[in-house]
Amino acid sequence: MDDLAHDLADFITAAPTPYHAVAEAVRRLGAAGFTEQPETGPWTGGPGGRYLVRDGTVLAWFVPEGVAPGAPLRVFAAHTDSPTLKVKPRPDTGAAGWRQVAVEVYGGALWNSWLDRDLGLAGRLALYDGSCVLVDVHRPLLRVPQLAIHLDRGVNSEGLHLDPQAHLLPVWGLGVPEEGDLLDFLAAEAGVDAAEVAAHDLVVHDVAAPATLGGSDEFLAAPRLDNLASVHAGIGALLAAADDPGGVVPVFVGFDHEEVGSNSATGAAGPLLETVLTHLAGGFDARGAAFAASRCLSVDVTHAVHPNYTGHHDPAHRSVPNGGPSLKVNANQRYATDAPGAAAWRRACRDAGVPTQVFVSRNTVPCGSTVGPILSTRLGIRTVDVGIPVLSMHSAREMCGVSDPAHLAAAATAFLTDPVP
Q1: What is 234-247 written as a DSSP string?
Q2: pTM of the complete model
Q3: 347 in the same domain as 323
Q4: Nearest to 300 by CA among 262, 270, 332
Q5: Which residue of 100, 146, 340, 379 sits 20 to 30 Å from the alpha carbon of 183, by its own alpha carbon?
Q6: Which of 177, 206, 235 is the last residue of a domain?
Q7: Which residues contact 250 (CB under 8 A, 6 or more apart)?
Q8: Other residues' Cβ atoms within 10 Å of the Cβ of residue 78
């Protein structure tokens, strides 16, 4: 495993939820000398690195010495959330002598990928005093058991059929479930009084460690590559850009809730990024010119060509692992890329010495979308969509090329420091 892929594996392990991803990002930013900009406090202008946190979303930026408000902005946008199973407000349930956890599907998860896995539980506990405490049970705690083939003889020929209400409930013990059992357990894990826990945001996660595979260790298998691979690259690129920003202001944002549409106070459709960029541009009256000179890189994983399903891909626009991050293009604006944006991306890749590919979805297979079109619409900033190729997107465990995290970070650093108008 090369160094950056190894560091990505560490980042993913430390970030089973968006709240943990933000905490790990803040830890890295703080170690590099960035300081917090409290959302409820006065704006801190002037040179230096700052970050702002709200729940599962983090923004960070670096203002170089001698750069006045209104300088061109170079924005790297990703998202911190991943498809998973989210614990319901009243989690204690069960049947036939089993204790289970009530969950609902978050995002477009591949349901079958959560079966027969060792699962942990992580998230935040909200206390009556208004504070939140992170919790991560990073060991085998839960399991969603699949029905034995003896009891479902047609499963291989007729396909697996899952009812998300009935068939995705994890087991975690035996006996009669009692209300409060799970929260009592988690409060003890977090070191807080269970009576002080007023609410929670909790999700399950695969506890198997990231690993390399392949004859030459050319692949990385891990949970939450969508989209922690991009968050990790963006933080690294911002820190690298802070060493030589080239007269522009580099900005990073990792949004929550992309997997469910971004329509939240902490999603890409919310006001957070616009508020910060308006400050950096010198205020509302000055931001029009600044935004017009700015660019945004929307970074989310893309589909690697699947060797068993090549007919699902456009034959001339296939992406392969370790071939570099892909430029994502869609005529119907599911991606925000246009020709000038594509040129800026290719220039960044050329300057960084990084290979790049192009992904266009097959005409008969509609593509997903990203935060890119949302941000370009909301801000009017030219935006280009890119991402590293992965297999098994939205599975509990995905796979990418071991070299692509470094390719992405290098190209992103060049993009964040590009002075070309």
Answers
A1: HHHHHHHHTT--TT
A2: 0.97
A3: yes
A4: 262
A5: 146
A6: 206
A7: 61, 62, 74, 76, 237, 238, 241, 242, 416, 417
A8: 29
